[in-house]
Specification:
With about 425 residues, the protein is mostly helical. The protein contains 17 helices and two strands.
Length: about 425
């Protein structure tokens, strides 16, 4: 900053400390006032975050119990069926590429609102009468969820800097709770509404309700204009894209990213195939759906508890060991006795999965030194992470189709658990990007 900029008003000085979560920018003095108005209504903000979070897995979890019906309707092979779940996950990564830029250009509130509307549209497109629409809707659904995924950690870091870990547990818990309700309801709704189309389409209403609840954030924050470089005491602060600060050149950022991707991979294999694993071993479809919903429900416990514990620890290595061991134990159970121990394996996997996703998202916040870095690290972790995770359901389906057994895919996922343990132990060190 030049010497001519050293004199500032109190409002401008405060504005410098109010960092836009998406890209290392600061609002104008008018924007600072808008931010204060927004935070003066914490209940509105909390309701908006919770309702938006409920949608962050719901549209993905709604498909898994109905994969058999989708395959029958369109004559899909196992590999083609796996694309129904892999395509949205792929676009979780692709959408994450543009999320930081959109946040810079329009602000988190507007982008999150648009993402919820896009999600509702994608869910509706997915039930149009063609296989092409099924996949096209998946593209829209994945892109919309990517925007929610990437911008939420930066929003939390910006608006709740002293309660980032606890707020992370709130939104991850809400995310998993939404998936639980949807998974448990998919088959009953199919029967009630006369087909899988109605069962999938009904969840567009949840996205619309969340968009309406988020609208006050857009209206309150619309004064956040005049973005410039974030500044500190009398001078500019080098943002993450500045010299020596690019997250893409940080070993720690790559460790966080790989842990995010590997834990996402094992989770999306289960989201795509857990009910099918059970039904292939003789369990009824309705029971498999209930066990799958139970798995999602138990994830709430891990998603709430682990981020809270992580926020109280200087390093999170014990939690890395805990969650990866639990997931590996649960997958081993699915391989050895899938039906006999279904409820036990679902519980063990649930705590491990929920804890792992909560820990991965918390690591993004804890390893970032400030809100702009959190947004950039979130974009990197979720871009690479979800592109990696998209391989999981597709590879598992292909392995199953080629071998006629679920043992090879599960053995491969156990290898993923080992890799996640290694990079997770590095990511959990008490350092910042």
């Amino acid at each position: 900053m030049s010497g001519s900029d050293t004199r500032t008003t109190p409002a401008e000085a405060e504005a410098r400390l109010l960092v836009d979560a998406e890209a290392g920018v600061r609002p104008s003095a008018a924007g600072a006032a808008a931010r204060r108005a927004l935070l003066a209504h914490p209940a509105l903000l909390l309701v908006g975050i919770v309702l938006a979070s409920l949608n962050m897995r719901a549209a993905l979890a709604s498909v898994s119990p109905l994969v058999g019906e989708l395959a029958e309707t369109y004559g899909l092979s196992s590999a083609a069926s796996s694309l129904v779940t892999s395509v949205p996950v792929l676009f979780l990564g692709v959408g994450a590429l543009v999320a930081p830029w959109l946040g810079r250009r329009f602000g988190a509130e507007r982008v999150l609102f648009a993402a919820l509307l896009l999600l509702a549209a994608g869910i509706v497109v997915r039930v149009l009468p063609s296989a092409a629409a099924l996949y096209a809707g998946g593209v829209l659904v994945g892109t919309a969820i990517a925007l929610l995924n990437v911008l939420m950690p930066g929003l939390i870091k910006r608006d709740f800097p002293d309660r980032a870990a606890s707020m992370t547990s709130v939104y991850t818990g809400a995310m998993i709770a939404g998936a639980t309700v949807v998974a448990a309801s998919s088959v009953p709704l199919e029967r009630t509404l006369g087909g899988w189309q109605g069962s999938l389409a009904v969840w567009s209403l949840l996205a619309v309700v969340a968009a309406v609840a988020w609208l006050p954030q857009v209206l309150i924050a619309r004064g956040r204009t005049g973005h410039g470089l974030a500044t500190g005491r009398g001078g500019p602060v080098a943002g993450p894209a500045g010299p020596g600060r690019s997250v893409w050149r940080s070993a720690l950022a790559w460790q966080v990213t790989l842990f995010m991707g590997l834990q996402s991979l094992w989770s999306y294999v289960l989201i795509a195939w857990m009910p099918t694993i059970f039904t292939d071993h003789g369990m009824s479809r309705s029971t498999a759906g209930v066990v799958f919903a139970f798995n999602n429900l138990i994830q709430v416990a891990g998603a709430f508890a682990v981020p809270l514990l992580a926020g109280r620890m200087r390093g999170q290595r014990p939690l890395i060991v805990l969650v990866t061991t639990m997931v590996a134990a649960g997958y081993t159970g699915l391989m050895v006795a899938p039906v006999q121990g279904a409820w036990l394996w679902s519980a063990v996997l649930g705590v491990g999965q929920g804890g792992a996703v909560g820990l991965a998202l918390t690591l993004i916040v804890l390893r970032a030194g400030d809100a702009p870095t959190a947004a950039r690290l979130s974009g990197m972790a979720q871009t690479i992470g979800y592109l990696l995770a998209a391989v999981g359901p597709l590879a598992a389906g292909a392995l199953h189709q080629s071998t006629g057994s679920w043992t090879p895919p599960i053995v491969a996922v156990l290898g993923v658990c080992a890799a996640a343990l290694g990079v997770g132990l590095l990511a959990a060190r008490n350092r910042t990007v």
